[in-house]
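Lab notes, practical 5.
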Amino acid sequence: MKQIDKTSTVTTNQVADNLHISYETVTSSLAYYNFPEGAINSPNIMKATIDDIPRVRTWTEFRRWNKDEDIDAPCLFYQANGEIKQLIELKLDVSTIELLNEKGLHIFLYEPICMYYTDDPLAGYWMSVYNYGFYTEFPRDNVNGTGTHNRVRSTELDTIGYFAGQNKLHNLTIHTGDYGVEKACSTYNKQMKLLCDDPFLNELIMYNNADTTIKRSFNKHFVCTCWRFTSIRAIMCSILKQYETKGVNSNIIWFFETPFEKLLDTPWMNVNGAGGQEPDREPKFIANLKEGLDMLNKVVPLTYDVGATSSTYAHECAGHHYPTNTDFDNIGNPVVVNPTHLPLQPLYRETFIDICIESRYGQPTANISEKVLQSMQFKTPFLIIAPPHTLKYMHELGYKSFGDFWDESYDLEEDHLVRTEKLIEIMDHIASLSLEECHAMYLKMWPILEHNYKRMAERSRLGRITHIDKSTVVNLQAVAWASPDNTESLADTIKNEQMNRDF
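Output from the prediction step:
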């Protein structure tokens, strides 16, 4: 899950306290803007009345839902994944329905939508429509606009469609972070207007507390930081681990012990019939994957900012597994802490390239998050492991990538297995370079790194880089964190960095 608020690790809790509702209620429910008082009558929304729902007049200093224009139409904002339970029995009065059909209703979806496809032979997990826990990984027949593309659906859009039908609404605009959503989910186009207009990216605030000076040398080729389990993350961490047999080292964060046979259940790999059809072929990287995974399983958990007493066993191929046995409660959500407190900065300062694995992989729509933004914050080259057309999406947002240094045609490859093979070929090439050669390439990339850093600032909510407001972030002395050598706390690290530059 993406972080709730980029400005602070405590802001959301403070808002919740002010509203006398729990953090979980805020993050898993609807917020509203510009609805007439008394318009909503539902026992399933918060405490039954609109006055008990978080509203933008309370949240305005924390939220910018639409970056480019003020919307005077009524809006709903959903921060979770899957079925929007509050909408199922939501009944609007006649005057509100007339207002919404006249002015329109805008619904903002903060998280990537949870897609699935009809007639999925692997669906049914958790008695749901998904084949990968809380969303679907699409099989290899889903290529070039054929196969399952014409049967793609989304649980969030299903709910919205039902709500619209029950209330006779016909003027809906849905803002998502999914690039190409109007094509991938075209079955909904007659009922609602689908936009890629990411509320998460629109609320970004960029701080100037990172060390963005030129790196003078590298100790490692790769950095790869992972939290939630996904198959592609297990694959890439295994490949990185296998490189150690060739003397190529990486900074890896990975918590999971993963059985090889379960990893082969990944739908788009289509090994052992995992894609719901006859087995196609073994992946080109299968031998290196097996060797690397065996090495990885022997040393997990590999931790840095959040410690763990033991590994987390991934007993199935699904995307809902999170690390267990960690000091998460003492640290807080690393997604929230990382952009402000920079515990991962030392990992990035000593490495050439970030193997940046985004939230989703085997699906038709692209989405970017704090993961690739973190690479840009640290002015570090990245190889983005993500759905097809992610680089195209980033280019349209004004960012540059590294097509002058390796073949980026993988971005257009809609066969997820083939795309994975192309990405690993690039990783193999980088691993074949000496650290000196990597540094020489990095210096040539510097104009791109500077451009992306500046573009990230321009796209931030404030339109610029801002000083971090230390009064709004968690007390550093209360953070129980230690570097790998257990000699320096996070608080000490940041304190020392503050002494060396204008913070």
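Observations recorded by the TA: Residues 206-497 form one domain. The radius of gyration is 23 Å.
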